[in-house]
Q: What sequence folds into this?
């Protein structure tokens, strides 16, 4: 038996930090996204009633916005029926059925704007929308048993197969925005029908291997669409970050199903390149607004970090798939954890109503004000989350992600269960039942009760954790990590207690990252911390952290989050230039909150990386 990822259908997150997020998603976020999408015409566009002169002109990828939202409803429904939401999805499906062409083609934008030629503009997202609709349709049939949506989408896929694979009659060969590849592999897994894997392989094999239009290359560079080289020769993460990680996810999926070693090798190289040279400490990726793209190695500016929420989500998809290609290593789950608690979660407000598309690591309100009206190159990220964007891909991605978070907790084969993430939960892994109790990430204690079929348990030792204690049925066990896991033999009824030492850490970055030279960041457990002006007297300009001295931990009752207090100095206002001896920098205690919670108390300066003082 190959190592499998346990899917969220077999995992219930029952309490703690993530249950609160999942409840918020079910009760608030999904509805909020629905209401904003409804007001802006996204749901009604499917009715094909929009006319020139009406408000809310439909956009080329609105189908993908509502598809991701429908996929979220499917995941929520899988756990607990939601009749009101289900009714909305059923109505949309009825409208899609009406709008779908005889030949199977469906896209509400092209059906409204009939003067536009289908499959003529590679960058117009028809295949991207098809992929998201397909993912939603699979999820909806699984959750409800209703098959209409998936039947419609299978008809659409048959049309796509005909146009692209059989006739070659489209004006391009591979999608401008990847997504359909991974959706097709989901359909292959769900139906066992190899034609869907073949179509996914066609899109992967053709990418970069044939001549096709790349109209944005002049503006965003030839790598923008990841078709500058055949995929098996791509070793460096490049171009539009969301497109890239969706592609790499599909490549990893394909490699796992076809045992294509060249594809696997490319995935390993791409993974390595991202996590060692192109990823922020928060797990954010895609550093530049220009082309929403990866930049050169180590170019990770903080204030202008683009780090789209969808790209963070996509990185975890890629890592999750990589763990199937390399099952014995905990490295992928470590990155997933980094993204989850930081660069993903910063994308949503604490009340679950508003979103960041960009997730910068520094806000300087003065600088921000100066550049607000600049052209795209210099413009900085917004400083407050909003409920909807013109290009609103991130909010429904957050919806579907939170609703299916259980996907990331466990992997297993006949011998071992790998515990990847620590969340209070119950899980059933073909005979082995696990119950996790934990207050993580508030502390590092995890109790795991094992019942049913016996398998050894591999507990991930997070990369940030230096000390730990492990007990089985109350007795200490002395075990060293193997590839990042603590492996324990278990029997029915065993109870494992793992205590991961969490302590505040001072982190330095690779000196090649110019923006972070001489800087230090603080973390606690999986959480990267940040300073906000609201806690630290407004300006953060003169604050430097002392290299030694105790960093203390506290609970902020209002935010419901852990905070750190770090000995620091604050340089007082002075003349433009002064002798060092004249500069006054009295001691000061800097307060840090988890990065993911920044910008929840109004506009504020913010910093993840702060200068480290040379004073003792
Ligand atoms: O193009 C569709 C989505 O909108 C992308 O994934 C995002 O980066 C944004 O461009
Ligand atoms: Zn997005």
A:
């Amino acid at each position: 038996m190959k190592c499998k990822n346990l899917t969220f259908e077999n995992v219930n997150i029952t309490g703690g930090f993530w249950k609160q997020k999942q409840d918020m998603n079910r009760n608030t976020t999904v509805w909020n996204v629905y209401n904003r999408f409804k007001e802006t015409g996204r749901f009604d566009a499917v009715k094909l009633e929009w006319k020139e002169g009406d408000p809310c002109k439909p956009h080329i990828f609105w189908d993908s916005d509502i598809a991701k939202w429908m996929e979220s409803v499917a995941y929520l429904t899988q756990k607990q029926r939601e009749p009101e939401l289900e009714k909305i999805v059923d109505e949309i499906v009825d409208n899609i059925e009406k709008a779908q062409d005889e030949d199977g083609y469906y896209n509400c934008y092209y059906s409204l704007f009939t003067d536009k030629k289908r499959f003529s503009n590679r960058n117009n997202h028809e295949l991207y929308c098809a992929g998201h609709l397909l993912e939603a349709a699979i999820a909806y049939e699984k959750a409800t048993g209703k098959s209409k949506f998936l039947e419609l989408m299978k008809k659409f896929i048959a049309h796509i197969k005909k146009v692209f694979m059989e006739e070659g009659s489209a004006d391009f060969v591979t999608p401008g925005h990847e997504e359909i590849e991974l959706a097709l592999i989901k359909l292959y897994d769900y139906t066992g029908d190899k034609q869907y894997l073949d179509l996914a392989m066609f899109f992967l094999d053709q990418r970069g291997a044939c001549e096709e239009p790349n109209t944005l290359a002049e503006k965003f560079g030839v790598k923008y669409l990841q078709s500058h080289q055949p995929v098996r020769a791509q070793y460096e993460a490049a171009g539009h970050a969301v497109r890239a990680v969706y592609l790499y996810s599909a490549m990893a999926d394909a490699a796992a199903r076809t045992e294509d070693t060249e594809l696997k090798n490319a995935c390993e190289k791409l993974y390595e390149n991202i996590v060692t040279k192109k990823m922020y400490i928060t797990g954010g990726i895609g550093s530049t607004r220009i082309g929403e793209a990866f930049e050169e190695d180590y170019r990770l500016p903080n204030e202008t970090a683009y780090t789209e929420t969808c790209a963070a989500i996509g990185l975890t998809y890629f890592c999750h798939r990589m763990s199937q290609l390399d099952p014995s290593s905990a490295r992928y789950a470590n990155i997933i954890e980094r993204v989850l608690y930081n660069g993903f979660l910063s994308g949503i407000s604490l009340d679950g109503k508003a979103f960041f598309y960009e997730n910068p690591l520094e806000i300087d309100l003065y600088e921000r004000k100066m550049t607000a009206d600049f052209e795209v190159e210099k413009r900085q990220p917004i400083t407050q989350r909003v409920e909807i964007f013109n290009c609103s891909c991130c909010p429904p991605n957050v919806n579907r992600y939170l609703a299916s978070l259980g996907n990331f907790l466990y992997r297993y084969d006949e011998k071992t269960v790998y515990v990847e993430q620590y969340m209070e939960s119950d899980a059933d892994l073909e005979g082995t039942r696990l119950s996790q109790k934990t207050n993580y990430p508030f502390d590092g204690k995890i109790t795991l009760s094992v019942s049913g079929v016996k398998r050894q348990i591999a507990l991930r030792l997070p990369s940030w954790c230096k000390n730990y204690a492990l007990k089985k049925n109350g007795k200490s066990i002395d075990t060293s990590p193997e590839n990042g896991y603590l492996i324990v033999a278990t029997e029915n009824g065993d109870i494992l207690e793992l205590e991961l030492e969490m302590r505040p850490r001072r982190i330095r970055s690779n000196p090649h990252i110019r923006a972070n030279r001489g800087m230090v960041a603080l973390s606690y457990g999986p959480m990267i911390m940040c300073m906000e002006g609201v806690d630290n007297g407004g300006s953060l300009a003169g604050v430097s952290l002392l290299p030694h001295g105790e960093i203390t931990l506290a609970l902020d009752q209002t935010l419901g989050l852990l905070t750190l207090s770090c000995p620091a100095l604050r340089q007082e206002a002075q003349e433009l230039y002064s002798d060092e001896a004249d500069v006054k920098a009295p001691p000061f205690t800097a307060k840090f909150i988890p990065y993911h919670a920044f910008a929840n108390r109004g506009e504020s300066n913010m910093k993840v990386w702060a200068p480290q003082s040379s004073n003792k």
Observations:
- The domain at 410-500 is CATH 2.60.420 (Maltose phosphorylase, domain 3).
